[in-house]
């Protein structure tokens, strides 16, 4: 069996889903190989781009290609994170070098891959990509790599972990190429994006005949069944990171991503994809999590532990405080009254917590209440102050343009950020997209993204606060406020929250 993580996504850490699958297959005696084609493909483009002639190129392009090796070394060096301008130039130059190597007809970078001729939102275009894999910007990489792997082992099963739209076209190009060289191989596709497709109300599986099996949700049991092996009831195996080559990733030391749960323990927010797709909350018991980490971390010796949960549960936080993992860590958390406790925040910091990502969404209490966020702004304010005092950085997420919001509400969000400018370390600003399977009664919808695989729809805002008005507010008011702009300037380009904790360590 061959498990593949396709391009393009941020190459800062190994894919947690494949590590989890690998651990399960290994424990059950299923022979397999891991291919992180994302980090390999991006490094391939960087290396080949650095060898290309430079005649006629602009100054930036020549500099980017000339300094690929130096910039790769810089991004992998912790000292660079103490010099933000040096870091920014290294990352943006690497991104530029990837784009040059990918050539015309595609927009490829360190965290994204798009094509001008095909859209990942249309199943017909994904099938076209499969029919013409040679047109994919990563084809020069995966042609040789797949031929080499398949020539040595001829895997009977190849599984693709498809999580992001930026991976979709190359995933299907790779599938199409595999069909040409190994026509009898069983092709399996799972991952977050595949799950969202399959749980859409309009799903009809347009990939029959090309993909043998699509898997929604966790894929361990399905893969074992396809391989003819049995899963042990109630056993959760330790993820295996041994097959990834940790030194290749673009971070200043190994980063271990780990999921202690799937779904969300709150699961009440309006328009939440987890709720809309009816994804159940499936947590691991804290003692199992600590057991896994106790097995993984001493051998991996990571620079950072990344907890991937939609929200780290209060029970797991308490467990980490009582039995620290022994390495710096960060993850997503809900605002809670527990985080407003200065003593608890100090205990979290002692456990190794460097940064928490926090979904505030709005600075208007009425909007939060109507969205059923379960957030009290007074408690959120106290939490930001307690975390700041404890030395834990915060990466705050804001969402503009929800049906509950209007311009006056957005102004309250701006006021909240300004009041807490000294406590907010980083900001993520997003414009609301309406999920196709979460449209409330009474909301008028229309086409948004053209394509049968689109997960979102346009809607008529009940308060007239449409996307154009929201973007005007963000560009002309919100981002121009000095307090906001000062925070936004600190956000690491391309890698954003994945690299932000390293700036906290270097400060």
Features:
alpha/beta; 507 residues
Model description:
The structure is a single chain. This protein has 507 residues and is an alpha/beta fold. It is 42% helix and 15% strand. It is built from 20 helices and 18 strands. It has a six-stranded parallel β-sheet with strand order 8-11-12-13-14-15, with helices on both faces. Strand 1, helix 1 and strand 2 form a beta-alpha-beta unit. Helix 3 crosses helix 5 (84-102), helix 7 (139-153) packs across helix 8 (165-181) and helix 12 packs across helix 13 (314-322). The protein is globular. The model has no long low-confidence stretch (mean pLDDT 93).
Task: Please render the helix and strand layout as text.
Layout lengths: L1 E4 L10 H12 L5 E4 H13 L9 H8 L1 H8 L8 H19 L3 E3 L4 E3 L7 H9 L7 H15 L3 E5 L3 H17 L4 E5 L1 H7 L14 E2 L5 H7 L28 E4 L2 E2 L10 H4 L5 E2 L2 H15 L3 E4 L6 H9 L6 E5 L8 H9 L2 E9 L3 H6 L6 H14 L2 E8 L6 H13 L6 E6 L2 E2 L9 E2 L9 E4 L7 H12 L3 H7 L11 H7 L1
Parallel strand pairs: 1-2, 1-5, 5-6, 6-7, 8-11, 11-12, 12-13, 13-14, 14-15
Antiparallel strand pairs: 3-4, 9-10, 16-18, 17-18
């Amino acid at each position: 069996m061959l498990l593949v993580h396709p391009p393009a996504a941020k190459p800062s850490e190994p894919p947690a889903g494949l590590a989890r699958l690998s651990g399960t297959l290994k424990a059950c005696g299923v022979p397999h190989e891991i291919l992180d084609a994302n980090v390999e493909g991006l490094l391939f483009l960087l290396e080949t781009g650095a060898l290309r002639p430079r005649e006629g190129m602009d100054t930036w392009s020549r500099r980017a290609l000339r300094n690929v090796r130096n910039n790769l070394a810089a991004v992998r060096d912790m000292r660079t994170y103490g010099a933000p301008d040096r870091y920014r130039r290294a990352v943006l130059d690497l991104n530029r070098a990837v784009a040059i190597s990918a050539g015309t007809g595609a927009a490829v970078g360190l965290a994204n891959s798009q094509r001008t001729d095909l859209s990942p939102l249309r199943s017909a275009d994904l099938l076209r990509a499969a029919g013409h894999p040679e047109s994919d910007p990563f084809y020069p990489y995966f042609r040789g790599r797949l031929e080499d792997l398949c020539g040595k082992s001829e895997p009977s099963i190849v599984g693709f972990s498809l999580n992001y739209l930026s991976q979709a076209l190359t995933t299907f190009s790779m599938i199409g190429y595999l069909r040409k060289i190994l026509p009898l191989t069983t092709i399996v596709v799972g991952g977050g994006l595949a799950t969202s497709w399959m749980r859409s109300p309009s799903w009809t599986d347009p990939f029959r005949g090309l993909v043998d099996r699509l898997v929604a949700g966790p894929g361990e049991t399905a893969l074992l069944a396809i391989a003819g092996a049995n899963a042990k009831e109630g056993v959760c195996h330790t993820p295996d990171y041994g097959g990834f080559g940790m030194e290749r990733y673009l971070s200043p030391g190994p980063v271990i991503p780990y999921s202690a749960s799937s779904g969300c323990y709150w699961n009440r927010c309006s328009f939440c994809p987890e709720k809309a797709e009816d994804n159940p909350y499936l947590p691991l018991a804290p003692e199992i999590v600590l057991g896994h980490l106790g097995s993984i971390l001493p051998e991996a010796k990571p620079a950072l532990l990344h907890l991937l949960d939609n929200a780290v549960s209060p029970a797991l936080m308490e467990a980490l405080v009582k039995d620290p993992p022994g390495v710096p860590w960060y993850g997503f958390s809900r605002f809670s009254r527990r985080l407003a406790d200065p003593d608890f925040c100090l205990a979290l910091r002692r456990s190794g917590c460097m940064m928490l990502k926090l979904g505030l969404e709005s600075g208007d209490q009425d909007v939060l209440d109507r969205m059923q966020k379960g957030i009290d702004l007074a408690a959120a304010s106290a939490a930001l102050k307690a975390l700041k005092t404890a030395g834990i950085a915060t990466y705050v997420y804001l969402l503009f343009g929800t049906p509950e919001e209007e311009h006056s509400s957005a102004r309250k969000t701006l006021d909240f950020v300004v009041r807490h400018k000294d406590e907010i370390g980083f900001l993520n600003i997003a414009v609301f997209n309406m999920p196709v399977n979460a449209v409330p009664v009474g909301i008028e919808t229309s086409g948004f993204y053209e394509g049968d695989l689109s997960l979102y729809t346009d809607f008529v805002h009940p308060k007239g606060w449409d996307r154009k008005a929201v973007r005007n507010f963000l560009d002309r008011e919100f981002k121009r406020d000095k307090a906001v702009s000062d925070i936004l300037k600190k956000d690491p380009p391309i890698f954003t929250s994945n690299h932000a904790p390293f700036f906290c360590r270097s400060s």
